[in-house]
Amino acid sequence: MTFSRSVSCDNICKEIHEALGDINFLIQDLASLSQTECRKIRETYMKIYGEDLVQILGNTAMASQESSRTCAALSTLMLNPHERDAVVAREALDEPINYKALIEIFTCRKSSHVILILQAYQARFRRQLDQDIAKIEPPNPYQKIMMALSASHKAHSTDISQHIAKCDARRLHQTGEGKSGAIDEAVVIEIFSKRSIAQLKLTFFTYNHIYGHTYTSFLKNEDFGEFEDAVRMVAKFICNPAKQYAKTLYRCLKSTTTDKGALVRVMVSRAEVDMDEIYRIFKKNYGIELKSAIYESVPAGNHRDFLVALTTKASPS
């Protein structure tokens, strides 16, 4: 259901309230809503019934495990984007640590959004996301990079400089393939902590222009260690997030990843951002439409219906 119909927000909330045990109706009503519509529905539901629809959906008892999982996914759909990312970050920090989910947050969100995530995390969990990342044991290369990127987002640096990109690209080369042995971790961390994501993206493109190959291709060396692998993964997300998201979706559908929540996480978080581009890359790289791949790989049921409904949500033009 959408607001394009002559249906008031109050009436939609009433229908949802009366259908809380009907997962198929909830999918039909909620899955295709835009983020703005979700926010209005949540606010109106709270005003009418005095309860948070997010919590209601998350706690609603369903007849099957599949329906309960789908209802929980609908609950995350109704969250504001920064609230949702705060929840994702908290879940990512449970053992085993899901660094991929944290990479998505720190490389694919605007700095203004990351600040809201940090605030939502503190409000919801009464703790600091930065401190929770810093406390990860044992220490991990991804941990160092996430802390650096967090510092960069807090700096709110928005200016993009080709001169800085050239200087940083040369520093990365001089302290990387321009010398023998492992890359200089201190230089990489310094650059990541002081540059915006857009500036880092320009730096990596400039590196390719100057040296004739990508920085990530240089890092694809079996003799390197965990830090280089982590930098390579982060750099790939910075340079082409849609390609990495398409790869994540494909691996989820082919059951070749242990990140079981990635399918819903990606489709919900990117629905009104760059999902059109992700769809195009998915079809180009894997020879099949995402919707068709879902039909082929996900067993028939309400969870598949929910995922298919999400494919109807396009990025704004």
Automatic annotation (TrEMBL):
<dbReference type="GO" id="GO:0006950">
    <property type="term" value="P:response to stress"/>
</dbReference>
<keyword id="KW-0677">Repeat</keyword>
<protein>
    <submittedName>
        <fullName>Annexin D8</fullName>
    </submittedName>
</protein>
<dbReference type="Pfam" id="PF00191">
    <property type="entry name" value="Annexin"/>
</dbReference>
<keyword id="KW-0041">Annexin</keyword>
<dbReference type="InterPro" id="IPR018502">
    <property type="entry name" value="Annexin_repeat"/>
</dbReference>
<dbReference type="InterPro" id="IPR037104">
    <property type="entry name" value="Annexin_sf"/>
</dbReference>
<dbReference type="InterPro" id="IPR001464">
    <property type="entry name" value="Annexin"/>
</dbReference>
